């Protein structure tokens, strides 16, 4: 068992990372989104962010990150120092050997810069999950076994093995467990792997999951002490009013999700009350509980309060902002807080 004592962390000392769903904005194409993602990655690399992760989703017109490993290569090729990875690869959709070969290839091309975050949800609807040709009724035991199979493929070379990941073996690509439940927290602790929680859309179990992860953590060859990260939504702007306006695109994005409507990321609107009813508003805001909106001072105060209550070592930021320039500016404002000076 690990020491569960938690030392509160200052925002200015906390590593920041980016989660990108490669959202497609209204009036734009996936190609536009790919180019914007690379531009954002280059900016946040200069801003001092630690990681740039891409999420696997399928059958969603507003999310273009379905071929996740290809996009990781695209971002890694266009940057030079930032770590690039998956947030995550949805393992039930893939054969572990193929994942090992893909990420072994990426690590061989961009050594020391690739992360492999793994999730057990399909990243899509049930019909599409079946179209991905995998067993959609897989058990929790399957997920754990597949992770261990991946670790073997990416671990020390074994010339006597019947099946080998080439490239892959010997690369030791860092594996993260992603999740939004207590199961994922317990598994990450059991396997001694770093843990990332999806609190940007599933806030309910964040505190319990982090506590369970620390309590169940067993040191491993790759990690001696628990290391956790929480993903949150941040929309920063030069004024609180501008940030609130930009946030309406995020609200509309999640409103489409709860209505089960497929649409592109919409531009900001002045009055959300014209778009949602009271129940929908409550549902969206609950799902987006860990969302921080405002100017530099507001973001600094609220994110520090989050860190005071939440035992994480790193913060990952997701920002659904319609205008690309405004999205880059949001990440710049946040980075200046970590550097210890306001923009």
TrEMBL record:
PANTHER family: LUCIFERASE-LIKE MONOOXYGENASE (PTHR30137)
One Pfam family matching this protein: Bac_luciferase
Domain Luciferase-like residues, every copy: 18-254
GO CC, any one term: cytosol
Family label: To bacterial alkanal monooxygenase alpha and beta chains.
Protein name, entry field: LLM class flavin-dependent oxidoreductase
Any one Gene Ontology molecular-function term assigned to this protein's record: oxidoreductase activity, acting on paired donors, with incorporation or reduction of molecular oxygen
Species of origin: Thermoflavimicrobium daqui
């Amino acid at each position: 068992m690990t020491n569960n004592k938690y030392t509160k962390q200052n925002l200015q000392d906390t590593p920041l990372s980016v989660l990108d769903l490669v959202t497609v904005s209204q009036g734009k194409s996936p190609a536009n989104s790919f180019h914007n993602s690379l531009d954002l990655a280059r900016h946040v690399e200069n801003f001092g962010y630690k990681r740039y992760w891409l999420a696997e989703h399928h059958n969603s017109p507003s999310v273009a990150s379905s071929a996740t490993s290809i996009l990781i290569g695209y971002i890694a090729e266009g940057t030079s120092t930032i770590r690039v990875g998956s947030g995550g690869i949805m393992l039930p959709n893939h054969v572990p050997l193929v994942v090992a070969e893909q990420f072994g290839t990426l690590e061989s091309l961009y050594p020391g810069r690739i992360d492999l975050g793994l999730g057990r949800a399909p990243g899509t609807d049930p019909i599409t999950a079946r179209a991905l040709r995998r067993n959609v009724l897989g058990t929790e035991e399957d997920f754990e076994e597949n992770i261990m199979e991946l670790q073997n493929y990416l671990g020390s070379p074994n010339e006597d093995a019947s099946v080998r990941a080439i490239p892959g073996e010997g690369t030791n690509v860092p594996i993260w467990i992603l999740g939004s439940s207590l199961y994922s927290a317990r598994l990450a602790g059991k396997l001694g792997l770093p843990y990332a929680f999806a609190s940007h859309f599933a806030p309910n179990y964040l505190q319990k999951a982090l506590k369970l992860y620390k309590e169940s953590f067993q040191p491993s060859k790759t990690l001696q002490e628990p290391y956790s990260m929480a993903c949150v939504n941040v929309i920063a702007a030069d004024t609180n009013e501008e940030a609130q306006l930009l946030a309406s695109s995020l609200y509309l994005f999640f409103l489409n999700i709860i209505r089960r409507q497929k649409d592109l990321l919409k531009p900001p609107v002045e009055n959300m009350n014209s778009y949602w009813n009271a129940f929908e508003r409550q549902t969206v805001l609950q799902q987006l509980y860990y969302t921080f909106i405002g100017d530099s001072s507001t973001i600094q105060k609220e994110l520090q309060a989050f860190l005071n209550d939440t035992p994480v070592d790193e913060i990952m930021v997701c920002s659904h902002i319609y205008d690309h320039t405004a999205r880059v500016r949001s990440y710049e404002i946040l980075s200046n807080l970590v550097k210890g000076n306001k923009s």
